[in-house]
């Protein structure tokens, strides 16, 4: 495990310990090296001084080749415990005397080295020339044991190790306390982050310790957590809302990926297809809900879309057959949309079972057909009834009039040819016969008019009702009668209707008004009207004899009369005709009156 | 053929009373001298085209006017009118429909077939005899028909 992967606490400790260790090591190293150099230098100096003195003292003995003297000089090394061997060589390089005297000759170098010192293994070797007034007499060889020096430095090394060991312990103790200041908040932060990522609980907050960079980091972290929590809440709300929509939708909602696998299958879809969500999620949708006969088409459509990006069925409302879990097929209404523009595409279908609707449609169609059939039958019945009526009125006009003409004609002949033979009563009776015949002729004519009205087509145009009323009034009063009534005509609203028929309405209403007010001193006829958005309302009012309102329901019936013929002549067809005309125009007519207080006839015409 | 014996009015009418009244009205104006009354459409066709019991008749002798009722036994008035007006030999004979019917479809159909006049018989005798006599006057005395011999064959 490298340092990089170590926990931060260990990292901090390692850094502190390594730093302090390195410093200590360098300090100790420098001390030991300087000690080493100084000590060796001192060693060489003291041995060189000893060698020079010995060389000086032994020059005479060498010059005179006095072995004893020389031996005496060298024996002085007894007190120098370090010097383990000394040898005096003559000018020819031949060993003259040696110390200790019992030392074997082979322990001494046979050939002399260069003047000066040199370290060899644990010994310091020194060659000192023996001079006598510039004349070299020989060479002094000294061999000093320096193992004591190495001993000393081994001691130093031990001390250094001890010091360092102690220093590490102290440093560890200190760093162990100090590193908490830094690693603590970081560890807390890391712990918080881990807790959040483990538990997905974004309400947890990191604890802030100080205002340093770590404090900043904690703040930033907490701020970030706030934002995440807000977004998380928003996301959750949105998610809840969406899934509520999916769950509560009455239509089946099924999502599918580009390979035709089911991604979403809402409860309505479960109800419709009788599969559970778990049964179909991730499976090939076609295998479950598309009837075998349509599967290949479905797959071809999907491939076509993936290849060309064109999906003619997308965004359309289709009526198709679908497959239920129990293997039955049923009709559905389906619309498929591509959701978003992500790649690869996903599709969502909205499915509605329309079995009931189809059945209702079928029922409606059936009922309609029935109704149509019934209408056709009724129309045929009506047509035949109409034909019968026509035949009836045709024969009435022919067959009833012919005998009437006979009666009128022959009574006339009687009156013309046999007048002298008739007495006054006979003539009067013949007159009555003729009048009655004429009256019956008029009745037949009006009855025919009335029945013809039901068959006549309306030719509607915009009518100036004021002008029409005025013209009719003038026509009706053109022949001077007993009293010409006073006309109070106010401007009338325009109307839409069949001109000759509307003229007939005014003719009948005005002639009635004139007829029933002619007994008045000053007959007054008032015509007025007003209109709103839906209809125009008109009235014709007279100050005539009026009628008892309890008979007003008989006013508009055919041959219904409220007055005796000897008072006011009439056939009883006029108002029935008016009623029928207005009815055919979609209007209404009604009347208000009291005996002797005049009558008002209102009528309406739709706009 | 003697011009004096020339037929002036042919009345086709099934109702004998109507016929009598018509004749009476014409007589009062002295228009009933050369007057033939036939009682149904079939007889009228035989008479006009010289067939059946009238095979001996010279059909080039045109009446000055045919007064034709619409409602006739066997062959109705409109059929008679169609036959007369679609035959080149008889096309120029003036035909006046005299009927009780004031049905529009009868009027329209009659004019379509080429009727010369359409008269609704009034119930009132005075009006009736006035109408008949004026009619007779016009067609018998005033109207000048083309000579049947020189007409297109």
Distance N terminus to C terminus of chain A?
100 Å
What is the helix content of chain A? 40-55%
| CATH A-level architecture of the largest domain in chain A | 2-Layer Sandwich
Mean pLDDT of chain A: 86
Can you tell me the overall shape of chain A? Answer: rod-shaped
Detail the poorly predicted runs of chain A: none
Sheet with the most strands of chain A?
5 strands, antiparallel
What would your notes on this structure say?
The complex is a heterodimer of chains A (607) and B (153). Chain A is of the alpha+beta class. Helices cover 53% and strands 19% of the residues of chain A. Chain A has four domains: 8-161, 2-Layer Sandwich (Beta-Lactamase), CATH 3.30.450.20; 249-353, Beta-Lactamase, CATH 3.30.450.20; 359-430; 458-606, Heat Shock Protein 90 (2-Layer Sandwich). In chain A, the strands form four sheets. In chain A, strands 2-1-5-4-3 form a five-stranded antiparallel beta sheet. In chain A, helix 1 packs antiparallel against helix 2 and helix 1 packs antiparallel against helix 3. Chain A starts with 7 loop residues before the first helix and ends with a strand. Chain B is an alpha/beta fold. Chain B has five helices and five strands. Chain B has helices spanning 16-28, 41-49, 77-85, 104-112, 125-142, and strands spanning 9-12, 35-38, 65-68, 95-99, 117-120. The longest helix of chain B is centred in the last third of the chain and has 18 residues, at 125-142. Residues 1-5 of chain B have low confidence and may be disordered.
